[in-house]
Amino acid sequence: MKTPGNARRLGIATAAIMAMASSALAQQVTLRSSDGTVNMTGDLVSFENNTYTIQTLLGPLRVQASRVTCSGDACPDLSVAEVDIAISGSEEIGAGLMPLLVEGFAGSKDAAADIGNTAVQGQFVAQLVEDQGFGNDLATIQVTGSSASAGIADLLAGQSDIAMASRRLAAQEATALRDAGAGDMLDPSQEHILAVDSLIVVVHPDNPVSTLDVRQLFGIYSGAVSNWAQVGGPNLPVQVVLRNIVGSDRQDAFESSFFGSADISLTPNAEIVPNSNAVAQFVNENPGAIGVVGYAFQRGANTINIINQCGITMIPDAFSAKTEEYGLQRRLYLYTRGDNQNPQARDFIQYATSDEVDGVLRKAGFIGFSVDRREQSTSDLRAVALLNTDGGPIEQQTAQRMLGQMRDFDRLSATFRFRTGSSELDERARIDKFRLIDYLATQPAGSEVLFVGFTDSVGRFENNLNLAERRAAQVAAEVAASAGNRLSAITLSSVGYGEVAPSGCNESDQGRRINRRVEVWIKSPA
What we know:
- By secondary structure, the chain is an alpha+beta fold.
- The chain contains 17 helices and 24 strands.
- The protein is globular and about 80 Å long.
């Protein structure tokens, strides 16, 4: 049993002060906010209960340690000797989501989380104490936010229990971990999808431009477009702001998703800032600015709809992200080793991937997997595209048939896809299946649920139509089998529309993957 909660504070707060000589207390320190936008300098007066008190020209200031990083010889040593759960990797997850996840995990245990930054950039330590902070120590969790690659390297070296990644594990990383005895990293017991993060193009709130196509974005980011008037906006110089270009997982995702294999030289006039918060702040403060941030970091800026290479408009909202039909997005992962038997780490993973965290994700601004419902309007972009379907009589009849059915059904965000070259549902679909069942079990008796299959455009139209129907029927059957008698009062059926209504460009592997899907439509009883 660890020491009681009151005593454990000697390990982080009181002991840190006792370790500082009285002369050191008079030394100057600098406290920097986590987003790098606020610096406070003064003489350190005290550090108690994870709160700094510094004497400044404006008088004494008190700042919680969880909000800042301290630099200077007088800063207390916030390192801890024992860590029960070590987590490292993606900065977006570490800074944007993990503090709330850790607090939520503590709450699920009727515990309190005392969070404080350490001397390591991007790192915090949380002490979990039972009985809402009045009992014994429950666990010590250390989270280090840097990059997905660094987190995976820590996992390989055995220096962490959980790796945070804003991309899927690369083949060579999975192979290295397997060879090191970590097991199959792509197995659902080791690869855990945490949330979805869309990359959002943002502009100043007063900028009237709401839609840009890829060609225009290419011009803006290469420097060829230097004034907003060139893309239908005001007579205002364009100011590109970038976050950590070199080695950034986000920048790689941005360039490959926007520009494909095109060789783009980013404008040398870009403003470079340290993180996503700083990008959003710069955009909100500069009328001509444009930047890319994660969905959780919009901070009031206006978002831009993107017209992709084949003319499909991608709307950066949560519903499109959940259906994975917004092309600029990524899944956020937690990875664990199969040979790591740390029960506390497994307990944390179970909480982090449960339905219980949906509220935490929303609070942090990330996109979870809860099921949303949306009306299918005959005036929306997809309906308009169906009305203008090219091709022969069969294609046009199929589009008209789909339009007629859309009028009667709403769409759910649960969308099923399959592993590449396989008839097996992919790892995200397995999550959606059980969440869908839970959602449908709450719907009124007599509701009708329609599983709607689509394909890419490779092959003959008739063959794709048959494939879409088979895949939709397969998903309907799997959902029914997994639900048992929970959905006995609801009608499940299926239909296929083949390659009509594409959500991505069939010219790319990613676009074809997006198009190979089974949607879920629902109609309530009259």
